[in-house]
Amino acid sequence: RPSETWPSSSASAAPSAAPSSSTAAPNLDDELATPDGALGVAVPWQLIVAVAVILLALVPAMLRSLQRQQLARRLRSGRASAVDAWVEVLRTAVDLGIRVSPTETPRESALTIAAGGSALASLVHAVELEGYAPHRHRDLGGLWADVRTVRTAMFAQASGRRALIATALPTSLWRRIAHPLTVQPIVERTRATVDV
Description:
Blueprint: H1 28-32, H2 45-77, H3 82-95, H4 106-113, H5 118-132, H6 140-157, H7 160-168, H8 184-195
């Protein structure tokens, strides 16, 4: 009777638990690795330039919006004047291409702007009061509401193209808006207009 032999443990190797390198699952880190070894997804430089250009184009509109927000806070807290509110109306006129002269009285400029109805008249009246004496308007928060009404009316009268340009590229940012009551002759002309 032939002797029975048992296969040794070395004869039949146990199957390897680890897959071979040819069938191994792809390494996620290797797929996300950039040529310099950092993890991430490569972004085309054209996209970066386009985003930068868009952000730069939004800066003028953001600055004008910030100006209006600051004016609104100052008016509501009593730290601004009717003249400050009127200067914002003049800025809007400049942005929209409405020709207002720095030598005009507020009433003359209002005839050129011709938008906003009673809100515009209220602003002119408040500015003229400040021209007579250091008289501050009692309802400064109401003046901000008048400014918003006049601005809305001015934009409504403008063409769509002009309104878009005024919003995206406001000219008033790089053009000095003369204070309507800083020069004495302008104050005198304001009083003469009211007296008539």
